[in-house]
Amino acid sequence: MDIYFVRHGETYFNHFGKMQGWSDTPLTKSGHEEAYQMGRTLGNLGDISDTIYCSDTNRSVQTVTEMNNGFKVATGKTFKMVTMPELREQFYGSFEGQSKRETYAKISGKSVEETLKEMNANEMQDKIAKLDPTHLAETSAEFWHRFAIGIEKILKMETKPVIVVTHSAILTALVDTYAHEMLDEIEPSNLSLTKVHFEGKKFEPEIVYYNVKVEQNI
């Protein structure tokens, strides 16, 4: 089965370059508009599930709501939305809401891009967990455990390709771990598509493509 992962629309923390895992800010005006426009293109994906899954964060819910608005204009139909806490982005503990630039300077003394050239996504998450003085930030193992549980729930419930609205750090970690050669852009664009194939009901992802922008305004 195929899952089409969609990164949520732009948020204010995205706009301001802040760390945003379990912390949450609403979509910007651009985020709302682009999610609506993307909704108008979802018919291009063919015969897919009538359910969209997303994390229980407000930014994911707002994205699905706007996508539904656009999809209804284009097709007269809407998707059922199911929220799942297992699909949340990685938790950064006390680094939530802090500057990305300053956070990565603490991790490696370098920029986000330079850090990612030297450390993989899992190593970075583990370094954040180690540096977090509150000891609340997730390790990579903790993240993968809960996320895999969520995806396996979806695989067991669905038979058709399905849309999952997700987060940039998840997509970066997914591609970095399972198809590193595809990681041409460290951070996927808001409302880009990443297609992942699952042969069975277990969390064994095969990355088909990453960070593809769909055609707008159909």
As an assembly, this protein is: single chain
Rg: 17 Å
- Globular, elongated, flat, extended or rod-shaped: what is the shape? globular
Q: Treating each run of at least 4 consecutive H or I residues as one helix, how many helices?
A: 8
Fraction of residues in H or I helices: 40-55%
Number of strands: 6
Largest sheet features: 6 strands, mixed
Unreliable sequence segments: none
Strand order of the biggest β-sheet: 3-2-4-1-5-6
Distance separating the two termini: 26 Å
Helix and strand content put the structural class at alpha/beta
Topology as a string of helices (H) and strands (E)? EHHEHEHHHHEHEE
What would you note in describing this structure?
- With 218 residues, the chain is an alpha/beta fold.
- It is built from eight helices and six strands.
- It has helices spanning 12-16, 29-39, 58-75, 100-108, 112-118, 121-131, 140-157, 168-178; strands spanning 2-7, 51-54, 80-83, 162-166, 193-197, 206-212.
- Strands 3-2-4-1-5-6 form a six-stranded mixed β-sheet, sandwiched between helices.
- α2 (29-39) crosses α3.
- The protein is globular and about 50 Å long.
- The model has no long low-confidence stretch (mean pLDDT 94).
